[in-house]
Amino acid sequence: MVVGIGASAGGLNALLEFFEALPAQISMAFVVVVGHLASYPVSNLTDLLQKQTEMPVLQVTQPTAVEPAHVYLIAPSLDLTMVGGYLRVEPSQPEEGRRAAIDVFFRTLAEAHRERAIGIVLSGAGSDGSAGISRVKEMGGITFAQDPAEAEYDSMPRSAIATGMARLRAHRREDAAAAARSVAD
Q: Helical H runs in 41-100?
């Protein structure tokens, strides 16, 4: 299973709590797509996530084979796509004047892994992730959105929930536990 996690403004704390809550031994891969990387120094984000998990945290700057029990992080100014068991990178292509890095990744995750895909939308401004989370669900995957009341910026999770395709989760820690349980089922 591959878990795609989309976050943007205010998503740092949600990401840190998510990875802190994961069990030490887990057989899925995690791909983190942060919508506004300019506000996060990438080296710091990689280091911060690494402090929360025993899994290796890798920034993706070239085609990379996805392995279980690894965390992959999008690089600045790149879009990340999933093709089979590989992550591919390409220069960012804004859609309708806005960067939609989360939607781009979630759509390709859905196509590549269908019912073995999990999409999670955390704190962020705008609607990035909504179209992608819908595609994950349409292809048989599992989807979650952070409770907007718990998000620092609630418009991304609200938008994902408004699609009718995302399960609402009350707490970020529950997202981690739910994702882990879905693999065991």
A: 42-50
